[in-house]
Amino acid sequence: MKRVIPLLSIVVLIATGCASLSGVVTGTSGSRVDSRTPDILFVSAEGRPGSFNWARYPIAVVAFTSAEGSPYRVDPRMASLCDQLWDLPVTVAQFSLPAENRPVGLDYAALRGAGKSGMIFLLDAQRLAWNGYGAPPPGELLLLGEDGSILMTGSLTSPELVLQEARRLGEVEKQRRQAENYGL
């Protein structure tokens, strides 16, 4: 690992597919540069500081969701993406854009029904991550590469192409990891 952060619970959860993790965004490592996104800093449900780039797999599907309905609930479309990618090293992350930050403990409860293994769910009431990512429209899907580059965009209403590419890249990463583990 490039960074050693005492978030053992995240490491254990990430090993099983989509990771259940929630928190409140506290900052970014800067602004979007060309097609590269900044790292997102947050405080987890356990009160520990974290970094999205540290917690995520090399491939990530990210969406910012608006405050329509309850901003403290996982969007069922994001949970569906997580269900479809659970067996691959692909992170599914929802950045919710509520009017205010609620206590983090309540947010974690929303993840219990979020896909087979959950997902990363962060509140971004101050719009720090959203601005850092270049203010994408709510519901736009971003497929991120290992270096934070935006590889592809799509829509939550029609995620098929992003899902297909995420699955393809996830399979490549899975095979790379297996070869690395077996010394091939």
In short:
The protein is an alpha/beta fold and 184 residues long. The chain has one domain: Glutaredoxin, CATH 3.40.30.10. Strands 3-2-1-6-5-4-7-8 form an 8-stranded mixed β-sheet, with helices on both faces.
Q: What keywords describe this structure?
A:
184 residues, alpha/beta, Glutaredoxin, 8-stranded mixed beta sheet, 6 helices, disordered N terminus
Walkthrough of the structure:
This protein has 184 residues and is α/β, with parallel strands linked by helices. The chain has a single domain, classed as Glutaredoxin (3-Layer(aba) Sandwich), CATH 3.40.30. It contains 6 helices and 8 strands. It has helices at 8-14, 52-55, 76-85, 104-110, 128-132, 160-181, and strands spanning 21-28, 40-44, 49-51, 59-65, 90-96, 120-123, 140-144, 150-155. An 8-stranded mixed sheet has the order 3-2-1-6-5-4-7-8, with helices on both faces. Strand 7 (140-144) and strand 8 (150-155) form a beta hairpin. The longest helix is centred in the last third of the chain and has 22 residues, at 160-181.
What's the helix and strand layout?
Elements: H1 8-14, E1 21-28, E2 40-44, E3 49-51, H2 52-55, E4 59-65, H3 76-85, E5 90-96, H4 104-110, E6 120-123, H5 128-132, E7 140-144, E8 150-155, H6 160-181
